[in-house]
Amino acid sequence: MKLLSIETSCDETSFALINVDDTEVTIHAHNILSQVDVHQEYGGVFPSLAKREHARNAVPLLAKTLAEANLRAGETPRILQDVHEQITKLLEREEGLADELLAFLAKNPRPDIDAIAVTHGPGLEPTLWVGINLAKALSAVWQTPVIPVNHMEGHLASLLVDDPEQRATQKLLSFPFPAIALLVSGGHTELVLIKDWGEYTIIGRTVDDAVGEAFDKVARLLGLSYPGGPEVARLAAQARTETTESPFSLPRPMLNSGDLNFSFSGIKTAVRNGIENQRKKTSDGLLSDAHKQGIAREFEDAVVETLVTKAERACSEYGALSFLLAGGVAANRHLVSSLQVNNELPPVSVAPLLLTGDNALMIAVAGWLRANYDPSLILTNPSPIQAIGNLSLEERRITK
Ligand code: KG4
Ligand code: ZN
């Protein structure tokens, strides 16, 4: 199945074009455009700005993706008046996008694809709509069905790709079920029981902040730039090499709660209080670099210890045959190595580094999974698809 995919759930605009079947995948093209620079001065993602950036970058990035994929071209479509009007209406809130897209489509042949996969939740609804409306517009012109994809299922699907840089055909990876997945991102921290693709039960989740969010907040407390996760990880790694200790220790909330849930806001508050106390002890009220490193290390240790402990418990309770790690925080080396050396866990698979953050390649693979386990999700009429900001992995609904 040949799929074009679109991801706009947060601050990455991304397109991919793949050909995938039960055993193999060929990545014809994959482009990710991050808006980190745009949002850095706000210290987080600013939804209306993110939406504007997606709309501005969508057509150039789509054009680049199709050109790179260089598939056998079909006919250049004649855009009938009613389709023209439909697209103008669909994209009326995205300034300039309708005209830009129509001009592009009128000049370029229809690519040889079977479906368009698009993220429709969870995420920021204003930005999700940009991708969804674009998918609907392309579907109208090319007469191509649309598969709505759950972003978190996308993170799971990233584990099926062995080497996202590889352009030659590669084997599609597989795992024995039941599997336990730990999904860790800026908005989610979930332990998921996977009985099969499409059969997900969330067996543990954060009761407050997501783990990536906690990394970002602690980074801010330490005066580091957004997104803070990689910065905190860098300081923590330095502290480990130089055996720098934190001036205070941090709690491991809910470690013995008896369930599979997490809490990270208490650790973050303890970091804030610890930093304030530490500042009072110095004449200039500033934290030394060594203290910053030590605190980053203690924070990372506290978070990783909680995640690993609950992961172990989940695997033993459900008799997991494989353990999967994905999402933005799966880029954290300390978390990855702590899971990999753990003897209590079944074989551990980690998403390839390039696919830990948000990307359209994982959305394409998830689109293919969905088409297989539930063909009713291949929509020849995509008009019912809506953005659902809080869509759960357990749901298959496409409207609010
Ligand atoms: O999955 P993702 O790219 O976006 C969401 O869907 O949320 O995850 C982004 C999150 C951010 O909070 C970022 O700080 C965190 O992943 N992150 C990290 C690392 N790299 C990214 N957290 C800890 N260590 C890292 N190396
Ligand atoms: Zn994500």
Task: Give a written overview of the molecule.
Helix 5 links the parallel strand 4 (115-121) and strand 5 (146-150). This protein has a six-stranded mixed β-sheet, sandwiched between helices. It has a five-stranded mixed β-sheet with strand order 9-8-7-10-11, sandwiched between helices. It has helices at residues 36-40, 47-69, 81-90, 97-107, 125-142, 151-157, 211-221, 228-241, 265-280, 289-318, 333-340, 360-373; strands spanning 2-7, 12-20, 24-34, 115-121, 146-150, 170-171, 179-184, 189-196, 199-205, 322-326, 348-350. With 400 residues, it is of the alpha/beta class. Bound molecules: 5'-O-[(R)-(carboxyoxy)(hydroxy)phosphoryl]adenosine (KG4) and zinc ion.
Helix-strand string: EEEHHHHEHEHEEEEHHHHEHEH
Taking all Cα atoms into account, the compactness measure Rg is 22 Å
Structural class: alpha/beta
Total DSSP helices: 12
Mean model confidence by pLDDT:
96
User: Strand order across the biggest sheet?
Assistant: 5-4-1-2-3-6
- Number-wise, the strands total 11
Q: Characterize the biggest β-sheet.
A: 6 strands, mixed
Helix content: 40-55%
Task: Report the portion of residues in β strands.
Answer: 15-25%
Global geometry: globular
**Uncertain residue ranges:** none
What hetero molecules are bound to the protein chains?
A: 5'-O-[(R)-(carboxyoxy)(hydroxy)phosphoryl]adenosine, zinc ion
The N- to C-terminal Cα distance equals 28 Å
